[in-house]
Amino acid sequence: MLHLLDDPVSDPLSLYRYRDGISAVDLLAVGISHLDFFTWLADHPSTFAAITAHFEIHPRPTDVMLTLFTAQGLVQQNGGCFHLTLRAREHLTAGSRWNLAPYFSSMKDRQPTLDMLKVLKTGKPANFGSFDPQAWAQAMQRPDFAAQFTAAMDCRGILLGPAMAKLLDLSQHTALLDIAGGSGIYACALAAKNPHLRATVLERAPVDRIATECIAKQGCSERVNVHTGDIFAGPLPAGFDVHLWSNVLHDWDDSAVRSLLAKSYATLPSGGLVVIHDAFINAEKTGPLHIAEYSALLMNITEGKCYSIGEYRSYLGELGFEWLEHKSTAVGRGYIAARKP
Questions:
Q1: Are residues 103 and 167 in the same domain?
Q2: Under 8 Å between Cβ of 130 and 138
């Protein structure tokens, strides 16, 4: 199991950014070419609520859009209102001699750009209407599809799991539940770092079978097992003093995130830890830019986004958790740890 803690010599952050930022350009193109957002904001510095009302766009993608534009240095918040920066005023507003809007107009009718506009208007991911969970479950029975899916889960986790395991102190804890843990790579990395720890991956069928196979390939079956279940169906399994939510909560809207974290609070014993491992927007919602770009992708393909440190502080505090720490790990990711009193 020790090989699970190996680190690469080089930093792949730039490669992550190519993939994670693929939707950010389309969101910017919508703001310029479909909404003419910057021209309007130049004359109407506005609150978040006023922006959603004027453009008739949904709050979740509006939040992602404004965070992205702030991180790009195009808008800034002052006194509760969003204002243009000089860069946006000179280069993205009608009437400016340096206006780049015509340059972006060639992107206006690209399908990804049109999909992004639809997300802004409806709040639903672009593939929401066509996603068929039953068809996905059937596809997972095919060895080729299952292998591709597993590789997608493992290739990030083989870097991110050890980075988290080396920083997260679990010396006083004995049983970890890796919730919606995919291939089990994060549970295996934490078990490799903590020989006293047993871990269970909670997954629904057919991922549960794949997780069992992946855990065996990592040589971790003696201390990491799989429990079949659905995170939205009933309470979480009892008997664990650590709950890990790794790259899960960003797929869901804030009401679902609150509900899922409430399940952790209800099931964890006193002194139990909840650990959220993800990519986080900073508390001020001004960046980092690469996470704001990633949030645009998540907004486009899921019902969620990258949540901010401030939002998680609020969610956890409202439930009664005691905030412990936020630490950065690798390629722009990190974890938040909080304790149930």
A1: no
A2: no
